[in-house]
Amino acid sequence: MKIFKIEENDSNQRLDKFLKKLFPNATRALIYKFNRKDKIKVKSSDFEWKYKKRDNEYKLQIWDEVKIFLSDKEFDLLSKKQEKINNYNENDNKILNKSDIVYEDGDLLVINKNPGINVHPWDHKTKESNVILEVQNYLWDKLNSLTFKPSLVHRIDRDTSGILLIAKKKDLLTKLVFDFKDHKKIKKTYFALVLWRLSRKQWTITKKLKRIENAKSENKVQVSESWQTAISHYKLLKEHILKTKEWELIISEVEVTIETGRMHQIRVHMASLWNPILWDKAYWDKKINAFLERNYGLSRQMLHAWKIWFFHYSRNKTFSLEAKIKDDMKKFLSNIKGV
Q1: 2-78 CATH pick, 2.40.50.140, 1.20.1260.10, 3.10.290.10, 3.40.50.300
Q2: Which residue in 198, 242, 294, 315 has the most C-beta neighbors within 10 A?
């Protein structure tokens, strides 16, 4: 027999859903059977803090206690014992680097993501690291929830660096995810290096975008005037001229603020103006990419999630945060400025 005290992150969910998360190896039918056979009791203020049988639909409240009458062997069989994640390749980071933390409090973690790492485990067969696993390892001793794990509020591409929000509390996650979909209390600004001279120093791109599912020989996202609205505002910051034996490349530093969050939005919008993101292997010239990789060591698109403005519900105020550009972008800019 074991007793589980319900904390904030485990509250306000149905009893059967809580039990399914607690016992991932149990079928829902088995969980219902446990309840039917009086193996699950809940102590709450509704019943003067006495243990009583509850319906599967009962919503758990903070400070409730769930008593489960199972043997240790049954617990072991039905629950996955939490263990620190150690199935990485030797060269992968096993824990979030503290130098990449932009902001942290008891409810929210904001990081400056490195390029070349997925935000979540997209392939369970790989031993490659990902952001959410590294965050869970970093927060290992601080987690006090039985069923909720730190979760991404939003995502950025594998090869895009920059600011990323991770909620530690379920209530804050729900509110911020809604704000990202609504776009009214969120403002995201990116820093990008693009090819060629911009026709305007400042402009708003409103081309609609279409996502191609299971794309193979075509780009995953394309401009399509009958599809989803996408709005990007760009502003020219600086221009650099890179003279080589083969080309005279104009490279522009731009600030891009997005109103919508479509997949590859900035990459496709800038490419549609013939000002593609530098070293974007999906949406631009492979020959120029090869030159930049060979001579300047570029190996990912020069796009960085730079600044974010959002309302922090737990602190009841608006936050404005910035993530410094990564070393590969700094090094490239330093090199071309010295040409």
Answers
A1: 3.10.290.10
A2: 198
